[in-house]
Amino acid sequence: MSQLAAGRADAASKELPERGRALRLALLACALAALTCAHFLTDHHAVAVHDLLFKVTFVPLILAGLWFRPRVALACSAATSAVYLVHVYQMSQMGHGSLWLGDVVLYNVVAGLTALLTQRRAEALARVRTQARQLEDSARALLRAEETIRTSERLRSLGELASGMAHEIRNPLGGIRGAAEVVVKPETPPAARAEFGALLESEIARLDRVVANFLEFARPPRATPASVPLAEVVARVFLLVAGEARGRGVELVDEVPPACVVRADPDLLRQVLLNVVLNALQAHDGPGRVRVRATPEELPAAPRGAPPGATERAARVQIDVIDGGRGVPERLRRTLFDPYVTGRDDGTGMGLAVASRLAETMDATLALNATSAAGSTFRLSLPSA
């Protein structure tokens, strides 16, 4: 039933252009017939009226060129010319026919050219519409391809994250299983039982850190920005890592101006700097130096006529953590801030990944600014207070 209705609808839609075509053809026939009758019924001596009628005849012939193909338009102009030539011949007997012979010739030229140009225009519009449809289809295909690529990238990232997580969990689980097998054996001596019990505790603690790092990366806490004296945060970080720095023989150098104030969450900023400074310390294979430097970035001077106080001020503060380690290998530079990417055998690969995520929550950016065999520079860019 629905197919029958659809067929009727298609037939009706096809009939509409045919009706319009017939109506236009009937209108042209009536107009040309009326002008022809007016010519033959008008007195031969009324030259001005005949001249007007010859000129008005151009209107239906131009319409024929606009509405129909060249063949139909030329047929109309040829029929009109043939009838008008009879009238011109009659008028020539009275010495007036040569006045309109040129108009009769122009009827065919004007009708043919108008129809030809209209047809060319219609063909050009059809090509443009076809190209527009093709471009629209191409745009849809590109959007689908882009969405497919995004989905693939998300799945790839998820797969890498899951693979790294599984690797980090498998290692402590292997130690826990081995230690548990020893502890449950009745013949295990008390001293060995205590030793493997301590190993169980350490591996469980390590597993807990792996899960905590993963959760911190996946769901970073919400930042609460405030005006933070940067020098105090750096001093606190240096205090926390002082023991490890002494053990490695690395000197900590604070080059932060005392008056430097940034807009950040104090706890998150301390965690970011702690992760980056620890990464810098662990990059040293022997004695060296880790420097933390802060450089305000100035805005251009305020324009003339600006209100008081709208003068030069720091837009952002660039915090550089510079180490003298072995540098970042070329193969790791593109994925350095991805989870579980590390260049050390004992590294977890989560320190810089977590630091980068925490920086994003504070409208900050963390990047590897420079690296070579003589060391690396990590830059943290923060809004100034």
Task: Characterise the protein shown here.
With 385 residues, the chain is of the alpha+beta class. The protein folds into three domains: 137 residues; 57 residues, Signal transduction histidine kinase, dimerisation/phosphotransfer (DHp) domain (Helix Hairpins, Orthogonal Bundle), CATH 1.10.287; 145 residues, Histidine kinase-like ATPase, C-terminal domain (Heat Shock Protein 90, 2-Layer Sandwich). The protein has nine helices and seven strands. Strands 2-4-5-7-6 form a five-stranded mixed beta sheet. Strands 1-3 form a two-stranded antiparallel sheet. A hairpin with a 2-residue loop joins strand 6 and strand 7. Helix 5 packs antiparallel against helix 6. The radius of gyration is 44 Å and the shape is elongated. The N terminus is likely disordered.
State the gist of this model.
The chain is an alpha+beta fold.
Key terms for this structure?
five-stranded mixed beta sheet, Helix Hairpins, single chain, elongated, 385 residues, two-stranded antiparallel sheet, 13% strand, 9 helices, Heat Shock Protein 90, 3 domains
